[in-house]
Amino acid sequence: MSISRQNLTVIIVTLKSHHIIDQCIQSIDKDISVIVVENSNDEDFKNYIEKKYQNLSCILSKENIGMGAGNNIGIDKAKSDFVLILNPDVTLYNDTIDKLLRAGNDLQNFAIMSPLCENIDYPNYSIKKKDNINFENIFEVESLDGFCMLINKKRIKEILKDSKFFDENFFMYLENDDLCKRVKNKNEKIFILPTCKIKHFGAKAVSEDYSKEIELSRNWHWSWSKFYFSKKHNGYVYALLDGLPKFITSMLKCLFYYFILKKYKSKVYYNRALGVFNAIVGKSSWYRPKLD
User: Fold this and answer.
1) Residue (of 221, 223, 216, 253) closest to 239 by Cα position
2) Full-model pTM
């Protein structure tokens, strides 16, 4: 099963991404199919983007269902055997696609791989040990950041025996780590291509007009996702021992900032504590930012 331009689909999940989506799409070769999953019911956005780009189709999820669920919709709709998951605040270099295709056909046995983020201070992968790794050649990793992942769709579907690639219990954060862990548990391989580069602008996928609401949402969901991930892979007791101190610390900081009249910062820590609490008592990741 070879990877080619005809056997590859780029999937981008968006929400209030009008300010940045064009530069992402324009960095993708025009002969590559693109599916945008817009996490809203924004018909104007769908009409605009489909009219502007001939290689693109836009699916409206109707509501904000999160990154993992949005990507699952795109993966399900893609007719290709390979999908490239991109965040809207990522751009490719001119040779990124060619290098991905060449590496994919050379490796044959990969489950997931990614280009290297050009910002060396924030690597888009994690590894157990740096020993014996030649960082100039393709190397194996434990997990990849979710803003750029080339997924061997057919292979992963066969090994996981699950129609859902990303666990939709995660609204945002760690759904990519969860997928990578499930793949590694099946002894499959995940790679980084150090000579293949991407640019990630970082936390720019949603317009800065909503920055305060997004920051509240990030704190809630990071806490919730950390607990849920720990519980799923290490058990409830492990997650509780790890999460309870964070809940207490966040509540103390919430009260401190409240009394010194820094109300927004107090609310940030309140949301952080609330995320942990909801995960501890078994509630879903229900919190949604107010973006209207």
Assistant:
1) 223
2) 0.93
56/155 same-domain check: yes
d(C-alpha 74, C-alpha 82), whole Å: 12
**Distance between CA 10 and CA 100 in Å, rounded?**
12
pLDDT tens digits, residue range 111-138? 999 999 988 778 899 988 766 777 788 9
Sign of the torsion angle spanned by Cα atoms 204, 206, 50, 117:
positive
**33 within 8 A of 80, measured Cβ to Cβ:** yes
Helix 175-185 vs helix 67-77: angle between axes, to the nearest 10 degrees?
Answer: 60
DSSP, collapsed to helix, strand or coil, labels residue 27 as: coil
Instruction: Encode pLDDT of 161-203 as tens digits.
Output: 877 899 999 999 999 999 999 999 999 999 999 999 999 987 7
Q: Are residues 57 and 171 in the same domain?
A: yes
Domains in the chain, number: 2
